[in-house]
Design a protein that fits this description.
It comes from Tritonibacter scottomollicae. This is DnaJ domain-containing protein. By secondary structure, this protein is an alpha+beta fold. The protein has 14 helices and 34 strands.
Amino acid sequence: MDAATAARKSLPLIRKWLEDPRGNGKRLSLSMPALTQGGTMLAITGDRKGLAMLHDLVSEFDHLEEYRADAEKHLAAIDLFDAIRKAVAAKPGILQNKMKSEVGAEDGRLVSNLISWLEKAGEITRAKNGKTYALYVDGVEMSAKDASAIYTEPPRPGSHQARSKPGKPIELNLDKLTLLPLPPSPEAWSSQLTLPATSETFEDAEGVWRELTVEAIAPADRPDPAFRKHFTTRGGVLSFDDLAKSEASLGAPGAVMFTSEQDGTPMIERLERPIYALDIHPEGKGFATRSKTNILTVYREDLKVDFETDLSATPEVAAGRRRLDLDVEGGFLWGEPHLALNCIALSPSRDRYLYTHVDEAWCIDRDGKPLWGVRMPERPVETYHQTFEVGGIRGHTGTAAEIEEALEKLELALPVTPDEIRQKYRKLVRQLHPDLNPGNEERMKAVNAAYETLTGASHDDLQGKGNAEDLLTFSATVTFMTGGGPDRLQAAAFSGRGDSVLLGTSQGRVLRIDASGKPIALYDVGSAPIRVLETDRYLYIQTFTRLYVLEGDRLVGLQDCTTKCDLLVDEGLVLLVENKGVRVLTEAGRLLGVALTKAPIRRAGIEDGALVVETRTHRGRFSGLIA
């Protein structure tokens, strides 16, 4: 009901925005949830007047043309919602796959979607029944068989911390750390990277494998598509049915399957609680999950529960909620407590875990003893320059190819450190600045442009200097988003050896913390990292558009990637797995080859040095990689 009210209130605001003549010819094509999901909310609440307003709005303005078909569907959905309610009430336990004919609809997928919305609204309960669901109106007694298929979350375990007084986090002062600015990562909306399509079942896109063998997977051996999330570890592959669609998850919130690297025999167990956040042990020796209700569950190597603890019951989280007014309706993060707790990480030795709460990170041993806590400094209220207010570093962001070209213009190549870039730039300024050596204007412009691409320095920083000495004393200033407030922690991981922790923030910073909670290194990639992973030798930082590979403070590899891209490190190779393709890199991030598929990829990994890619019906083996 609240969502429908909010959607209705937003319609006059959208109209006002469209009627403003100052936006003519300059409007962006923005996604407007009020016209999509909001329309569904209006339909489910039977708000015909609100839907009429929505229909009139999208019909009147050409800018909203793409929403017109949805508006028609929303109007029709009111009657279809009512028909579904009546049918389920009249026939308790009716199967979902019978509902299309029961309500006289043509689109079975639409009917299933509306049933899902009624379930989310608490009006209908669905019980797994074979490959479909038995449907009941809320409050109606179920059959014993259907009731046994409904998951009920276990009682909350409480916190395993014995203390009631919160610990005091270390207030980090990042100004005392040496900043390693990396070439800024493009924002997701500006990235145009796509892999080519193929009509072949599997294709070696660049001809870098000596042999490609393709085999059909027998129906009995085909992977259950319900296990849709796959993680390659040194011991095998962990696969998760996080939507509870497999037979193994009957009566549970989902299931997990471990396929051993040695014998290929799958081991399947039910999950204890729904997955909202997930961290995988690098050797396949278990994993940790966080539920939406903030219960941390640690699983052993045999996929059984090791221990649980209620993260939201810790004194540190309680103190943080008071500090940030998270209990106030309409406060920070929309007053939703599950959004305040974000990352979890499990140490390789399984003796510690880490969780983040908004801008704080806490490392706890398995007995509940806090080892350390840190708090990120608040974001500056104002920026140094007001031109750009997106991401952590201002200025031009280039593609991976443009960055390689920029390095060439500075007479450099990977691997390279930020200091080497700065020193080379200063040297070239001495050689090329027109005040000292007239006639090098174009070369100086090219060097400035290259430095801008590599560091994020803005055009204004490099232009209009009075003499060469001004340029020689220039140093790029890291500029953060305006607005103040906490710098939220959005990625966390233990290092490959477990002797430090890596934290990624919403401002595009990645901070290394030692075993005592002391900050020891700071990187900046310009936009929020979505994953941080470290092996014994290399650090991998992945944003929505880029993968950075570092060895110590040296940038050794850089690859562009798409917004939906899984990162796997397996047998000395790095895989960037997309929907219909895998890019294979060396550990240092150099591209070796691209494997394409016609159908969506279910699983990918390295087996005995060969890349093995599986779709639902076929398995491709790319072997004999040409170095």
